[in-house]
Write a structure and sequence with these properties.
- The chain is an alpha+beta fold.
- The longest helix has 77 residues.
- It is elongated, with a radius of gyration of 40 Å.
- It has 2 domains: 85 residues; 111 residues, no CATH class.
- The N and C termini lie far apart (84 Å).
- 51% of the residues lie in helices and 15% in strands.
- It has a 3-stranded antiparallel beta sheet, with helices on one face. Strands 3-8 form a two-stranded antiparallel sheet.
């Protein structure tokens, strides 16, 4: 009976409807014990025994349904876990293949641009209308920031040459400190990166030494470009890319 009671408690935790069956069994059992020690009509006692048998039957039936339900859940979850592992492995393999293909494609195009640049060719024409063209990249000039890994968005060393006024910092701070616009020991730096907009604005300004004209003289500050400079930052030359047609 102890083992059955422990099993019943476990099933009770699974679904509330079982509580009604357990309560009914307890009541019927108590009634039968009372009838056994007291003078009761035999027919009432027989009816109570039938009720007890029916409650036990319902408990067994519920237990069978619960086992089937648990087995179903267990099977579905296990199958989905297995499928998920396989899908993640497949995703990783596909991602690796994509990275290899992208790398190879990038190298092939770069080689094509370099060869065409070496022989000063803007286009190469093949058969059946196939054509390779060397084209300049559009858009704004890229920024070249010393020590900044733009692809991974991090500094290669902790103390960059770029002045502090040309860097943006992301910090974590308590809300009350944010409202007070203050910083103390509770403020934690999360990341720091170049302020590209301010850098471009500064580089677009005229050289403060020569006024942007160099006045016919050599200017060491702007190297005769007439533009202002920012330590650790410069405008890079627009690259070229290979176009297929």
């Amino acid at each position: 009976m102890v083992a059955h009671s422990e099993k019943s408690i476990s099933l009770y935790e699974i679904e509330e409807s079982l509580a009604e069956l357990l309560s009914a069994r307890d009541e019927v059992t108590a009634d039968l014990r009372y009838m056994e020690v007291n003078t009761i009509d035999p027919q009432d006692y027989a009816d109570k025994q039938k009720e007890s048998v029916e409650v036990e039957r319902l408990l067994v039936e519920y237990g069978e349904r619960a086992v089937l339900k648990v087995d179903g859940w267990h099977s579905a979850i296990r199958r989905m876990e297995t499928d998920l592992v396989a899908e993640k492995e497949e995703k990783a393999a596909i991602s690796a293949r994509i990275s290899r293909t992208e790398g190879t494609l990038k190298r092939l195009k770069a080689i094509g641009v370099e060869i065409m640049r070496k022989f000063d060719k803007k286009a190469l024409v093949g058969t059946a209308g196939r054509k390779l063209s060397r084209c300049g990249n559009g858009g704004i000039q890229p920024l070249d920031i010393q020590g900044w890994d733009a692809e991974n968005e991090k500094w290669c060393y902790p103390y960059p040459i770029l002045p502090a006024e040309f860097q943006d910092v992301v910090v974590r701070m308590p809300l009350d400190m944010y409202f007070a616009c203050g910083m103390d020991s509770r403020c934690t730096e999360i990341s720091r990166q170049p302020a590209n907009g301010r850098i471009r604005e500064a580089l677009a300004q005229p050289c403060p030494t020569c006024g942007g004209t160099a006045q016919g003289l050599h200017c060491d500050d702007c190297n005769d470009t007439g533009k202002a400079s920012v330590p650790g930052a410069s405008l890079a030359i627009r690259g070229e890319h290979l176009r297929l047609s």
